[in-house]
Amino acid sequence: MKLKFHILYILLLSMAAICTQGGTFDAKTAYTEVAMNESVDTSKYIDIASEKIHITTEISKSNPYLNQGFVIEHRLYVPLDISINNWKEIGSPQFTDFWSQNIAEKQFKIHEGKYKGKPYRYVVLKRTILYPQKAGELTIAPLTLNISTKIPTKERDVYGRFVTEEIDITVASENKTIAVKPLPLEGKPDNFTGAVGAFDFTVKANKNPLHTSEVFQVSVAVKGNGNLPLFDLPNPNVSNKLNVSQPENADEIHSDLNGVSGLKKNVYTLKATTHNEKYTILPMTFSYFNPKTERYEHKTSDEFVIGGDK
Description:
By secondary structure, this protein is mainly β. The protein has one helix at 43-52; strands at 2-3, 8-18, 25-34, 40-41, 54-59, 70-79, 83-91, 98-103, 111-115, 118-132, 136-140, 144-156, 162-172, 176-180, 197-205, 215-226, 242-244, 248-249, 252-256, 259-272, 278-281, 285-290, 295-300, 304-307.
């Protein structure tokens, strides 16, 4: 893309000869074109902007365990002498080997910071929680933007101000590699279903005592911070004299910069089939891997008895 300046013509009148007393008036008219149509190649400004504007990928953990959550943050860095009009995402990172959850950005806030030691402004483009689903080296592909920007040139307008050039550029973040550690085999319990984090475990019934043919509910719940959507809860161990329904999901899970947290909960409806009998809900054990202690931990519920007419 090139810009052309208007061609300015300056008319010069020159006298070849003047004779004033009975002589002749001989005039010659000449035109001089001032060459102002020099082409300005804007590709150099595209190169300058591409070298100055950057997208970075900030990672909260570069060496997590399998199924341990971490946050990646994409930032757009812009030098102080360049302005951004708009941007459009044209290439999104592919999280093939991760469970991912975006954290919504309510508004873009401009921050002051540095890039390679130089003062910059930056905005956080997006934040994403990732849970690696396999061990080994995993690659996070780049985020690519088409950016509309203004960059100052060396030209000045009629008021002496520097002229800015509007250009579009494409900028991408770099590939990032995450080294994911496998969960240890030592101490791995038989009932482990993949829970990684820090959790509490509870089992509760909503009725006691229980009368013949009366229904009641047992809830099995895990509360804490970790990969809550990615593991199974244990099933209640009850008498075969109880009719047990399929569990109803009652999860209350949310995501923020601290990862995924909340409550993972199944509710079972049970019905007594015999008269005046007591039913024992046996203890249940929930096992998980705690990345902070780097070992498997266990939580066991209490045994409790349901039933018996008043």
